[in-house]
Amino acid sequence: MATVTIGGRTYEVEVRGDAVVVDGEEFPIAIDRGDVYDTVTAGAVSYRVALPPEDARESGMAIEVDHRPFTVEYEGRLGGGPARPAARAASAASSSAPAVSNVPGGVAAQLSGTVLRIEVQAGDSVEAGQLLLVLEAMKMENEINAPKAGTVKEVTVGEGAQVSEGETLVILE
Predict the structure, then answer these.
(1) Cα–Cα distance between 70 and 1 in angstroms, integer?
(2) Is 56 helix (H, G, I), strand (E, B) or coil?
(3) Positive or negative, the Cα torsion across 161, 162, 168, 172?
(4) How far apart are CA 33 and CA 56, in angstroms?
(5) What is the mean pLDDT of residues 21-26?
(6) Under a CB-based contact definition with an 8 Å cutoff, are residues 14 and 24 in contact?
(7) pLDDT band at 84 (very low <50, low <70, confident <90, very high)
(8) I need a labelling partner for 66 at 20 to 30 A (CA). Which of 115, 164, 168, 173 fits?
(9) CA 4 – CA 125 distance, rounded (Å)
(10) Which residues, 6+ apart, have CB-to-CB distance to 54 below 8 Å?
(11) How far apart are CA 126 and CA 138, in angstroms?
(12) 107 touches 171 (CB < 8 A)
């Protein structure tokens, strides 16, 4: 069992062969190795993950998940490897960086997941960096923030919706 902090949130994680247990909930895991990214499928959701070489993996390492940079801190054992130093708070290096949308003014999902909460509605004025909605993926809450100030033209998803990376969530004008 390990305590893992990623994106400023802490989880209890245990790797069990072809599954990972996150805060007591088990997810089947499949990994498809690639040249630059590995595709990790946890339950029904797939992620593109870039890790440092095995000999450089340690607490405090930088990783990318769906092209978003994170720092991972952990204490304990991950996957049966050696124990690591005590964790310190970690943060997403770019938690408010918008994903690219093919819709003018569109704000896209940064990763695949479920819409947990929608904080705006059509007609609302928003400031740059203001929280628009929250996506959940593997029990992690990911804030989707306004990339610029504007007015919400449309919210294209509803709470509980399953979305894919790059899918337009909100349109700003």
Answers:
(1) 21
(2) helix
(3) positive
(4) 18
(5) 83
(6) no
(7) very low
(8) 173
(9) 37
(10) none
(11) 28
(12) yes
Q: CA 60 to CA 66: how far, in whole Å?
A: 19
pTM across the whole model:
0.48
What per-residue string of b and e applies to 72-81 under the rule 16 or more CB within 10 Å gives b? bbbbbebeee
Q: Provide the token pair at 137.
A: 């993926």
What gap in Å lies between CA 12 and CA 170, rounded to an integer?
33
User: Tell me, what amino acid is at 29?
Assistant: I
| pLDDT at site 94 | 35
Query: Among all chains, which residue has been given the structure tokens 């928003």?
Result: 126
Task: List, in sequence order, every residue forming a beta bridge with 77; answer none if it has no partner.
Answer: none
Percentage of the chain lying above the pLDDT 90 cut: 21
Quote the pLDDT of residue 158. Answer: 94
CA-to-CA separations, 105 to 90, 126, 141, 161, 171, in angstroms, rounded: 31, 13, 24, 21, 5
Residues of 127-160 as b/e, b for ≥16 C-beta within 10 angstroms? eeeeebbbbebbebebbbbbbeebebbbbbbeee
Enter the tokens of residue 99.
């994903």
Output the six-digit token pair for 30: 């499949």
